[in-house]
Amino acid sequence: MQSLLDPAVLFFALGAFAGLVRSNLEMPAAISKFLSIYLLTALGLKGGFALAASGFTASVASSLGLAVLLAVVVPLAGYALLRRVLSGFNAAAVAATYGSVSAVTFVTATQYLESQSISYGGYMAAAMALMESPAILLAVMLANALRQRQAVPAAHAAPVLAVSASGAVALAGPGGLGAADPTPAGKGGPALSVGKILRESFTDGTQLLLLGAMLIGLITRDAGKAAMQPFSGDLFKGMLCLFLLDMGLSAARNLPAVRKQSPWLLAYAVWGPLVHASVAVGLAWLAQVPAGDAVLLMVLAASASYIAVPAVVRYAIPEADPSLYVSLSLGVTFPLNILLGIPLYTQVVLQLWGG
């Protein structure tokens, strides 16, 4: 109950209430963007300062290695399960959403750990950055494989005779002159290479800012930490509260789309993150990573992207329904993690680690 009295959580609840009662409370888009930039910059700096203090130890390597493993296992397992209730393209999109991570959920978790005096590695910001792209890559590859399988029957269809305006007779259809693209117009996704996806992932503004700020923190070390303390330390909590107020508004306004979803998908949006977190804590316990890092691994595994992945998937997998994966991640999983998940994961780790 004490966790629900945290100012950041209460501001999220205030935003959700305002959205539910249809208040005209609104965060200007420019302010929302500024808050996102601030949080990512401050988080990256904190991670760089922490990594400079600890160095690249075996514990750091274990935490980052587990993060990459989870970023591969979660979307593949999710796709295998979701394929039973969704089309292949929708299953790939939802699996990518839940296989990737939510930066805001992660930032909220770090603030919660600090309020509970639980130490964690600032390098976990690098884990978050590493976990964002694998799910996108896997989803695009799965979608391309689906398109190829769909194209095979069309390629073997019997050709038909077509008469041109000049009276010439030619084969039309698959394999003939004027063969049509087997993918319907407006439905096929672009053929994206792995190299292009990787480049776009690591040059994406969110990734670039986070990793760049971390590098700056790593280079400037203690002197940089002292100089940036008012920016990355003192202001952080207040800025997070304002951003969560805006996220509460967004989550509430997304509820009508949530109500339209299948009960099976709603169950996945609730239980899927809990299963992912359970896998993460099991791996963390086996690897004996520090307790704070274990909590953050659970949070990252349980979170779902509602910004980065939808932006890429809408372009790369246009066959998928955006209202499906956005409504589940933002309308169900995000508030579940903010209000209940983070304190639950923390208590589980403290019990297992004997904290």
Layout of strands and helices, then pairs:
Layout: H1 7-20, H2 29-54, H3 58-82, H4 88-99, H5 103-115, H6 124-155, E1 160-163, E2 169-172, H7 194-203, H8 205-234, H9 236-253, H10 255-259, H11 263-287, H12 291-302, H13 308-316, H14 322-353
Antiparallel strand pairs: 1-2
Key features of this structure:
mainly alpha; two-stranded antiparallel ribbon; 355 residues; 14 helices; Na+/H+ antiporter like fold; globular; 2% strand
Describe this structure in words.
- This protein is mostly helical and 355 residues long.
- The chain has a single domain, classed as Up-down Bundle (Na+/H+ antiporter like fold), CATH 1.20.1530.20.
- It has 14 helices and two strands.
- The protein has helices at residues 7-20, 29-54, 58-82, 88-99, 103-115, 124-155, 194-203, 205-234, 236-253, 255-259, 263-287, 291-302, 308-316, 322-353, and strands at residues 160-163, 169-172.
- It has a two-stranded antiparallel sheet.
- A hairpin with a 5-residue loop joins strand 1 and strand 2.
- Helix 6 (124-155) packs parallel to helix 13.
- Residues 158-189 have low confidence and may be disordered.
